[in-house]
Design goal:
The chain has four helices and seven strands, in the order αβββαβαβββα. It has 162 residues and is of the alpha+beta class.
């Protein structure tokens, strides 16, 4: 789920913990830095640059490709990082398919609609290549309600941070 939805569900007591990208603080919630990822390019399984080598590739090689793009409404910080990463590579992506979440981006890439940048994840039907470019680091945080916590939540946070 996207960051605003995760925060809303935790604040509304529908979730105890959510994994989110840092965003503006939300009253009553606290975020703990959890992990950092670099952007990778996600490619449909049949793309010519899927070779199984895992070798880094120049982002500029994808300048003429159709792009699946995370909408700014879904995650302003992540959207802005994606845009900056492409601009540093010398191009503006040809956005053909906007997406409301990273999982939607990956599903569209898996269907062959285009390429995209995402934090490194594993999804069936989609191949990933690291970038030779300086790709922004994407921070993920664990967000929970402030104050006293259920024992299971406290234990999860302790284990995840270990």
């Amino acid at each position: 789920m996207d960051t605003p939805s995760g925060q809303e569900l935790v604040a509304g007591h529908e979730l105890d913990i959510a994994v989110v990208r840092p965003d503006a603080p939300v009253r009553g919630l606290r975020a703990r830095p959890w992990r950092h990822d670099r952007f990778v390019v996600a490619l449909p399984a049949g793309h010519p640059l899927v070779d199984g080598s895992g070798r880094p590739v120049d982002l500029a090689r994808f300048a003429e490709e159709p792009w699946v793009w995370l909408s700014r409404d879904a995650s302003p910080d992540c959207h802005d990082q994606l845009t900056a990463t492409c601009r540093r590579a010398g191009f503006t992506p040809d956005v053909r398919h906007p997406a409301g979440s990273i999982m939607t981006q990956l599903a569209m890439v898996g269907c062959g609609f285009g390429v995209t940048l995402v934090p490194h994840v594993t999804v069936r039907g989609t191949a990933f290549r690291p970038l030779t470019d300086r790709a922004d680091i994407v921070e993920l945080s664990l967000v929970c309600r402030s104050g006293a916590q259920e024992p299971l939540v406290a234990e999860f946070l302790r284990t995840a941070s270990g």
